[in-house]
């Protein structure tokens, strides 16, 4: 049986030194570099080693295969493990979330190339980096509500801090952001054409300053406009509502095709996870640090592992691919405030405690 903690070898992550540059390459291209616990542990060991190595002046994170940085966790493994109680996935989270927090405070320039597909756990390894680069090929998303889960890996903090209600829209609908959207919503800092990435790597290998190098290469390449930014009017109005039910009512009332499509997207998602996601994003706005947000996400993720909709969502989207999930409860009005509150309780086995450590 494959679980998030049993799959993977060190070859699934390539750890290299190129001059003063520490290079991390996620190396499961046929699986879109989806993450296993062994991969995360390898990345953590490398980052811990390089943090105290004066010969390493910067770190570069990339994905092998040319299609993307990382599509997230190994969802099939999560599905199988959750059916057996979820112990392996909880152990995966206990490695992943502290690593996400380390990325956010890494003592050396940490450059993440969010080229191509960068979703879920891929955002966790890149979206908190010091230097976050997108290209014309970038497709950035927190797609968890598609599979009966809630945005995690610190994604709820990024979404909560996006302008207006854009993050609420992206988080609830699991919308995919373009490079322009990712920049506007605070998931990335710099835009480079993909053709410039080999030059960037070569310069970093030569020991050039990452910030200055990125600025120099980005100068002739204006960032694309954000499509989401152009829709802030109806998005801010609709998603400012206090409940998912009212959000749906406002979306339908606008008469706009884009808002109608958003409503249809929501209607296909788990009612429970929509309500938990909205509550998580609202709470994340008030949490002081990424560490505290990751603590909250750990509680939610552990609760989701024991909920019917996670296994069912992955079954429908990834395993059987019938795209016909049967959610329990099936309607928003059947999900009570008490049902939502249970996702924020301390899980069996204890909390993550990152916020306390910080």
Automatic annotation (TrEMBL):
Pfam families for this protein: ECH_2
Domain of life: Bacteria
Keywords: Hydrolase
Catalysed reactions, as listed in the record: 3-hydroxy-2-methylpropanoyl-CoA + H2O = 3-hydroxy-2-methylpropanoate + CoA + H(+)
CDD domains reported in the protein's UniProt record: crotonase-like
Top EC group: hydrolase
Enoyl-CoA hydratase/isomerase domain residues: 22-344
EC number: 3.1.2.4
Protein name (database record): 3-hydroxyisobutyryl-CoA hydrolase
Source organism (scientific name): Kitasatospora saccharophila
């Amino acid at each position: 049986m494959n679980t998030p903690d049993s799959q993977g070898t060190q070859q699934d992550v390539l750890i290299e030194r190129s001059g003063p540059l520490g290079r991390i390459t996620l190396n499961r291209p046929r699986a879109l570099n989806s993450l296993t616990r062994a991969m995360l542990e390898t990345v953590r060991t490398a980052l811990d080693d390089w943090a105290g190595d004066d010969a390493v002046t910067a770190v570069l994170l990339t994905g092998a295969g040319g299609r993307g940085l990382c599509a997230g966790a190994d969802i099939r493994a999560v599905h199988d493990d959750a059916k057996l109680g979820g112990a392996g996935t909880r152990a995966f989270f206990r490695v992943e979330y502290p690593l996400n927090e380390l990325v956010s405070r890494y003592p050396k320039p940490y450059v993440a190339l969010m080229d191509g597909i960068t979703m879920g756990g891929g955002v966790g390894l890149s979206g908190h980096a010091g230097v976050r680069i997108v290209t014309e090929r970038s497709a950035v998303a927190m797609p968890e509500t598609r599979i009966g889960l809630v945005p995690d890996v610190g994604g709820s903090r990024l979404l909560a801090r996006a302008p207006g209600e854009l993050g609420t829209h992206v988080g609830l609908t699991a919308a995919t952001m373009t490079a322009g959207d990712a920049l506007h919503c605070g998931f990335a800092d710099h835009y480079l054409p993909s053709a410039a990435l080999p030059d960037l790597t070569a310069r970093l290998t030569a020991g050039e300053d990452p910030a200055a190098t990125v600025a120099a290469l980005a100068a002739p390449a204006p960032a694309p406009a954000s499509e989401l930014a152009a829709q802030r009017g109806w998005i801010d109005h609709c998603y400012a509502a206090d409940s998912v039910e009212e959000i749906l009512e406002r979306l339908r009332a606008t008469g706009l095709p884009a808002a109608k499509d958003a409503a249809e997207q929501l209607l296909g998602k788990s009612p429970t996870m929509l309500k938990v996601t909205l509550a998580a994003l609202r709470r994340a706005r008030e949490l002081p640090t990424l560490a505290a947000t990751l603590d909250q996400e750990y509680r939610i993720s552990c609760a989701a592992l024991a909920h019917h909709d996670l296994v069912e969502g992955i079954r429908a989207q990834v395993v059987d691919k019938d795209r016909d999930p049967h959610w329990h409860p099936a309607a928003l009005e059947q999900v009570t405030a008490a049902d939502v509150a249970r996702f924020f309780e301390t899980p069996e086995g204890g909390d993550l405690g990152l916020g306390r450590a910080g």
